[in-house]
Structure to design on (177 residues):
């Protein structure tokens, strides 16, 4: 029975990956390789997925639900950046050669279903298969550019509202050590 369950899970992951526009140009072999490092994660509303500054371990594709992202701004506190929707990529910094730490805090705005990829294995896979690596990095460049624009606009908004009340965070407060 365990083998059947594993086969069903693998087939489900193949279907999930093939239905994501980001991966439409992949060969069947590349999809199979991605399945070997992929999984599904369910997150409850209000649950923190990750904290800013944490070590990156997974790259996520939102399949269902929404995730609020925020960043810490000195002398202001947590600044809400935006709400990520289905098919948005989270944890992209795990694929960059230098950063490899969370650049924001992510909190589930609703129940969330995520496709997860082991970041270390995905980077290795991209190094070994340059066609896959080029496709992933080309798509990630668009994600990074979009995130940069969104972060910049949020910071401009903060500067404009500097003399007003701080924007309330939609995520629960973080514990400090």
């Amino acid at each position: 029975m365990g083998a059947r369950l594993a086969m069903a899970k693998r087939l489900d992951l193949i279907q999930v990956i093939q239905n994501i526009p980001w991966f439409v140009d992949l060969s069947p072999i590349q999809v199979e390789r991605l399945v070997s490092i992929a999984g599904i994660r369910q997150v409850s509303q209000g649950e923190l997925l990750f904290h800013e500054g944490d070590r990156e371990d997974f790259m996520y594709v939102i399949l269902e639900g929404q995730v609020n992202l925020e960043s810490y701004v000195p002398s202001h506190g947590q600044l809400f950046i935006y709400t990520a929707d289905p098919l948005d990529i989270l944890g992209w910094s795990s694929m960059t050669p230098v950063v490899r730490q969370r650049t924001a805090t992510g909190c589930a705005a609703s129940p969330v279903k995520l496709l997860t990829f082991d970041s270390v294995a995905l980077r290795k896979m991209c190094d070994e298969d340059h066609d896959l690596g080029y496709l992933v990095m080309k798509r990630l460049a668009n994600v990074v550019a979009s995130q940069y624009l969104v972060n910049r606009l949020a910071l401009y908004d903060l500067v404009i509202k500097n003399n007003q009340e701080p924007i309330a965070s939609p995520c629960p407060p973080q514990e400090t050590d």
Summary: The two ends are 45 Å apart (CA to CA). The chain has a mean pLDDT of 84.
